[in-house]
Design goal:
Number of domains: 2
Distance between the termini: 36 Å
Order of helices and strands: EHEEHEHEHEEHEEEHEEHEHHH
Radius of gyration: 19 Å
Structural class: alpha/beta
CATH architecture of the largest domain: 3-Layer(aba) Sandwich
Strand order of the largest sheet: 3-2-1-4-5-6-11
Strand content: 15-25%
Number of helices: 10
CATH topology of the largest domain: Rossmann fold
Shape: globular
CATH superfamily of the largest domain: NAD(P)-binding Rossmann-like Domain
Helix content: 25-40%
Largest sheet: 7 strands, parallel
Length: 306
């Protein structure tokens, strides 16, 4: 099956490309000029040069395909460069869906995120509205809402790599965020899910008609606190790390004045979402991939040692 994949050069998208090829499918990718090197198996993919701002380029990617996977997403905006949640997470999805419909393709798989809602942060709202758009029209849609995704970023960035570089590797104490004013009463919880498991879920859903019309929350096998994730990263990288608890409210106060600076590590909206937690049960993912999901362990964090 030829499958159009928007976002195929990103962290999760690159794993979906590999999983599609391993399952005997042919990915059709929209690749920004200069990003061709990010496609590891070029000879087994159809590459169209362009971006999601062009309806003609999107149509070229979708032509001859039986399904579309949309996994474009950003964590931080750069409005001066046209990189906004509205443009990439909602408007681009609408443009892709319109071109899919024009080409007679009704099967669309969407990468959303756990905890999306409206009203919410701009990140949450645009992801949620993209879901609602697909579900309100005659598409055969499947929506995935993963918790935080980890795994070897292969030169890019993901949650464990970022935490290691920003908090565990530097010779200063790491910051252990919590809500409220006491760490024991307000742990920030997440269900880290391995990127290869997320990719496997997409490919399985592509081949399984019963997933049409479904929304799946994807979580790893354990809900971990922010502090426990830092500890596991420290163990995996053999670092003896001192973790200083900090209420998210204090970091939010700092972000109020500094998050407009490109080098400031988090935005106020990111801190809001962090305070909400990001827990998803593992049952849905296990049913999709037919095995227990991978854990946030030293073995699965070995890429941090490279």
């Amino acid at each position: 099956m030829r499958v159009a994949l928007l976002g195929g050069t990103g962290f999760v998208g690159s794993y979906i490309v590999d999983a599609l090829i391993a399952a005997g499918h042919e990915p059709s990718l929209l690749v920004r000029p200069g990003s061709e090197s990010k496609v590891r198996q070029k000879s087994q993919c159809r590459l169209i040069s362009g971006d999601v701002g062009s309806g003609k380029k999107i149509a070229a990617v979708i032509e001859g395909c039986s399904a579309v996977i949309f996994c474009i997403g950003i964590l931080r905006e750069s409005p001066r460069q046209g990189i906004t949640f509205e443009a990439l997470q909602y408007e681009a999805l609408v443009r892709v869906a319109e071109q899919a419909s024009a080409n007679g393709v009704t099967r669309i798989l969407l990468m959303s995120a756990n905890g999306v809602r409206c009203p919410g942060t701009p990140y949450q709202e645009t992801k949620y509205r993209a879901e609602q758009y697909l579900q309100s029209r005659p598409f055969e849609a499947t929506v995935f809402r993963p918790s935080v995704i980890f795994g070897d970023p292969q030169g890019g960035m993901e949650i464990a790599t970022q935490l290691y570089q920003d908090m565990v590797r530097p010779p200063i104490p790491a910051v252990g965020f919590f809500t409220g004013w006491r760490p024991a009463h307000g742990p920030v919880l997440m269900s880290p899910v391995h990127v290869a498991d997320v990719a496997a879920a997409f490919v399985h859903a592509l081949e399984e008609p019963t997933t049409i019309g479904q929304t799946y929350e994807l979580g790893g096998p354990a809900a971990l606190s922010w502090i426990e994730m830092l500890r596991r990263i420290a163990v995996a990288t053999q670092k003896n790390k001192w973790i200083v608890p900090m209420p998210i409210s204090l970091m939010y106060l700092a972000a109020t004045f500094l998050d407009w600076l490109p080098f400031f590590p988090v935005t106020r909206d990111q801190l809001k979402m962090l305070a909400e937690g990001n827990v998803a049960e593992p049952a849905a993912l296990q049913s999709l991939i037919g095995r227990a999901p991978e854990s946030f362990t030293a073995e699965n964090l070995s890429h941090l040692n490279r």
